[in-house]
Amino acid sequence: MPSKTSILMAAIFGFLTISGSAFAAATQQVLYNFCLAGTNCTDGELPETGLVFDADGNLYGATLEGGAYGYGAVFQLAPDAGGGWTETVVYSFCSAGWPCSDGAYPYSGSLVFDADGSLYGTTTAGGGYQMPCGGTDCGTVFELSPVGDGTWTETVLHSFGNGNDGRLPAAPLIFDANGNLYGTTVFGGATYKKGGTAFELTPSTGGTWTETILHNFCSAPACADGGEPSAGLIFDAAGTLYGTTTLGGSHQLHCNGEGCGVVFELTPGSNGKWKERTLHSFIFSDGSNPGSSLIFDAAGNLYGKTSAGGPQSAGTIFELTRGNNGAWKEKVLNKVGGSNGSLVFDAAGNLYDAIGQSGKHPDGSVFELKPSKNGKWTQKVLFSFNGQDGAGPGSSLIFDSAGNVYGVTGRGGASGSGCGGRGCGTVFEITP
Question: pTM, whole model, 2 decimals?
Answer without folding.
Answer: 0.92
